[in-house]
Amino acid sequence: MIDLTFALLALLVKAAVAVIIVLMLLRGMITWFNLNPFGWFAYNVRRLTEPMVEPLRRNLFAMQARRDIAPLLLVIFVLIVAYFVLGLLDQFHQATVYAAAGLSALSQGQSFQGIRYVIGALAIGVLSVVITAIIVQVIFSWVGVWGNWLARLVNRIAEPVLMPFRRMIPPLGVIDISPLIAIMILSLISAAVRAVIL
């Protein structure tokens, strides 16, 4: 049941990425072939894609870069986020499996193995929650979502981790790469936990 749940979640992520890529390709075709922007097809494609493209286009305008490359950059951004999200799903999956194995071992009197599995599962779970918060914070900053309770909760989890990275890594123009570096380092720590403890 656990395996099936995580497999379905991974499938949903991949399907969402595929839909976004197809929509961006259709948007590109409308521009390349100079289709009537007020036609039914072009209008609906733009209506679906504009909320995704507009925040990125505003950032490109602030950087004085070409705004017509926003759909391409969006696809790259979505692929990067999907890569980390799929990795997170795998980590949550492993944490769940190891937690169940640890509890089973404890119930059978195998104290050392059970405690080792439970501690490893908790460590992976905490790291996964922090990485998830960082990814969500990046997405919220991209689309301009700040005021709701979820954004405040995400900031409360992510900011203590990101602050040291922001002090060490200066932004590239208006692009803050510290979340990417933080996610990579936290992922390495998670892999080390799996290798050493589990």
Structural class: mainly alpha
| Helical content (DSSP H or I, runs of 4+) | over 70%
Rough shape?
Answer: elongated
For the termini, the CA-CA separation is: 22 Å
What portion of the residues fall into strands of 2 or more residues? under 5%
Q: Spans of 5+ residues with little confidence (pLDDT < 50)?
A: none
- Tally of extended strands? 0
Largest sheet: none
Q: How many discrete structural domains?
A: 1
Helix run count: 6
What do the pLDDT scores average to? 84
Using only CA atoms, what is the Rg?
21 Å
Care to describe what's here?
The chain has 198 residues and is mainly alpha-helical. It has one domain. It has 6 helices and no strands. It is elongated and about 70 Å long.
Distinctive features:
single chain; 198 residues; mainly alpha
Write the layout of secondary structure elements.
Blueprint: H1 2-32, H2 40-62, H3 70-107, H4 111-143, H5 149-168, H6 178-196
Helix pairs in contact: 1-2, 1-3, 2-3, 3-4, 4-5, 4-6, 5-6
A few lines on this structure:
The chain has 198 residues and is mainly alpha-helical. The protein is built from 6 helices and no strands. It has one domain (2-196).
